[in-house]
Amino acid sequence: MYIKVKISTENAKAWLSRYGDTLPPRGMNALHDALRDVSPMITESVRANVAASLRVQRAVFKKSYYAKPNKIGDKVVLKIGSGVVWAWVHESGLRFSKRLLIPFVRIGYKSFKIAIEKIRAGGGYFVKGRNATILMARHGTPLPRGAAFRRRYRIEKGLKKVPKRSDIPFGVLVSGVVLTPKTKVFQTVMDKMPIIIKTIETRLEGL
To answer: Quick one: 161 and 113 in the same domain?
Structure first.
C-alpha cells in the first residue's frame, strides 16, 4: 500500500526541489527519523482500533500490530503490519466458497487433525438437520479437549450432566464462509496523516 503525501511548507519544498525525486543520504535519514518519531503514536492508534473493532481473546493479538520505518531499496516507508500472518483478513475481509468443517470448540491444527483421523476410523457420523449438517463423535471416541466438547453440549442442552453413552457434537459442516471487514487500520493511519506530514516537514526544514 502506497500513500502519496504533499509537502506544503515553502522551506521543505525548496529543499526538496534541489534534488528532484531522489533524496541525498541526509534527506533519507531525516525521513527515516521522522517516520521513527511517529511510529509509537501510529502503533498505539492501530492497536486501539483493533481492540475496539474485535472481541480480542488474547492481548498478544492486539500487541502483534506495529508501525516502524523501513528501507526498501532507495525508499523509506512506514510499514504497518502484524506478527500474525492472517491478521489482514480483519481489514480486507474474506470469501471462502468451499466446504469447511468448523469445530464447536477452539482446538489447534494438530489436535483437529487427530480428531478427524479418529472420527474417520468409525468414531463419528453426520446428522443432517433443517439448517445445518452436524458431525457427531460417537460415545467413547477419544477427542482432544473432549471435556470441553462435552461441557459445551451440556450447556447448550441445559443439562446438569451429560447422559451416559451419549454421542457428542464435534462440529458443523458449512458450504462457505464470508468474513466481513471489521478493523479500519488504513483509515486510522490516514487520520494521522497530517501529523505524519508535519513531522516530515519539520525534519526536512531542520537540515
So the answer is: yes
Question: What are the tens digits of pLDDT across the range 73-126?
Answer: 777 888 898 988 888 889 989 888 888 888 988 888 888 888 888 888 888 889
Query: How many beta carbons lie within 10 A of that of residue 114, not counting itself?
Result: 15
Same domain as 113, residue 72 = no
Answer for the pair 199, 34: CB distance below 8 angstroms, yes or no. Answer: yes
25-46 tens-digit pLDDT: 787 888 889 999 999 999 999 9
112: enclosing H helix or E strand? helix 109-118
Inter-residue contact 78 to 38 (CB < 8 Å): yes
Do 88 and 188 fall within a single domain?
yes
